[in-house]
Amino acid sequence: MDKEYVREITSRAEDYSQWYVDVATKAQLMDYAPIKGCMVFRPYGYGIWERIQGALDPRFKATGHQNAYFPLFIPESFLQREAEHFEGFVPEVAWVTRGGGEDLAERLAIRPTSEAMICHMYSRWIQSWRDLPMLLNQWCNVVRWEKATRPFLRTTEFLWQEGHTCHASEEEAEEEALRMLGVYADCLQEDLALAVIPGLKTEAEKFAGALRTYTVEALMSDGKALQAGTSHNLGQFFARVFDILYLDRDGQQKHVWQTSWGVSTRLIGALIMVHGDDRGLVLPPRVAPLQAVIVPIAPQRQREEILAAARELRDTLSGSYRVQLDDREEHSPGWKFNEWEMRGVPVRIELGPRDLAAGRVILVRRDNGEREEASNRGLPGRLGEVLDAVQDSLYRRAWAFTEKSTRVVRDMAAFQATLEQDRGLIVAGWCGDAGCEARIKGDTAATIRCLPLDGVVTPVSSALGEAKGLPCVHCGGRSGRPVVFARSY
RNA sequence: CGGGGCGUAGCGCAGCUUGGCAGCGCGCCUGCUUUGGGAGCAGGAGGUCCCGGGUUCAAAUCCCGGCGCCCCGACCA
């Protein structure tokens, strides 16, 4: 293939960070806003988020959740009630101190997360065991005044969903936390074509105030891991702080058991880094705002004839697929080929004089460049097959890459060497001691990404089997089960 | 919070060392010819050289101060 146009995008090998930013901007997913750490979601990038919402929201509904919306502002006194939990994120909170030209009597935090507000409301809404479980979710924005930001991965303001649930027992809360982790894993695999590793966070890595934090981790193509979603069993910490009590069947007042869980627009960063290549973005068909783009090749003489056929084709396909006809006159077909590849559209449909005469079109896959002819009659069905094949192929590729990039190591020398050469995921024994965990982090910058869940087949399954029974990689002490280490975003 | 880079047309940059007409490429506008992997020609529009102060006959350029953005690292409940 002609790579001349790639001048627009830095290669991954040359500078991965620059490649990432090039893809995000040149594919027109985002642009930098004139506020530090803030970005604009351009229509194409926001379209991906809408597709992610479209994949997750029905799953939330199917598991009994409803959407609601809570205020952006949180009174300072609310946050102070959970002082212990709050202390850690004070430096990241933005405050509103004036309104209507006057100083406010009480400062308002711009939510960095909504536990405080939602728990306050729950304390009013929940009286009886009959009110449980309470299963709400909200799609919203949050603000965290981060010192270092990167498009999609960590920005001052970002979009996410946060589910907040209340239950009558610890068992129910645990079940819910795991159920939603499963929902994330399923959606990320099925729709985003990400190969994820569900697992438990260590005490050091868990959400403060949670009993347990679960995570889905994914490996990016530069060998660093990304926490793609989290689900917390919050126990009764917030219930005590906010007095969320219910009268049980036995006549006793009891605190509820809670969960919270979330994924954010960070997932778009994961899509870029898992599927993208040196030509730009590669989108899985199920979350691609555009699944196919029709590029007419229309010489002057047959111009109207070909454009009419292309419009008809678009109208036929648009009932079943997200398609766009690129009939811009100011660009050549070659220019369009390159641009739509850079923007990651899964399939390109070419329609030129030769195709028109033969009653067919040309289909070209973004992920592997394969081209094929499809008859007009068979096209609608064939396009669906090709899109499925792209979706499937991207998932398999992500899985294979993650599996190939996973190493079992037995000592710290091998640990260090692996990180320096390939990065990737490291499966090793760990004694469970926070001291060993901290020293490994200090020496290598790698953290325990998770303790993988039992009974879930993932790209690290065979490595976990191989590492079974290995002693702690740091102290040589007895280890429980092997864990996954990596450097991470 | 530490390290590095940058700020000149919409974007990318040159010019700064050694002060002297504000330039180049892409993009944009108009017209014509083109269209199977980033078309060509002709004409045209577009500037607070980040901001403030200083030096000077003269500052994008030198000096002082400030602001902003990006990247890397640390931090990230």
Description:
The protein is α+β, with helices and mostly antiparallel strands. It has three domains: 4-275, Bira Bifunctional Protein, Domain 2 (BirA Bifunctional Protein, domain 2), CATH 3.30.930; 292-387, Anticodon-binding domain (Rossmann fold); 405-486, C-terminal domain of ProRS (Translation Initiation Factor IF3), CATH 3.30.110. It is 35% helix and 26% strand. It is built from 15 helices and 23 strands. It has helices spanning 16-26, 43-62, 76-81, 83-86, 115-125, 170-190, 237-241, 266-275, 303-317, 333-342, 353-358, 379-404, 412-421, 434-444, 461-467, and strands at 30-32, 39-41, 66-67, 73-75, 94-99, 102-110, 134-143, 157-167, 196-200, 212-219, 225-235, 245-247, 253-255, 257-264, 292-296, 323-325, 347-351, 360-365, 371-375, 406-408, 425-428, 447-452, 483-486. The strands form five sheets. An eleven-stranded mixed beta sheet has the order 3-7-8-14-11-10-9-22-23-21-20, sandwiched between helices. It has a five-stranded mixed beta sheet with strand order 16-15-17-18-19, with helices on both faces. It has a three-stranded antiparallel beta sheet with strand order 4-6-5. Helix 2 packs across helix 6 (170-190). The protein is globular and about 80 Å long. The structure holds one RNA strand of 77 nucleotides.
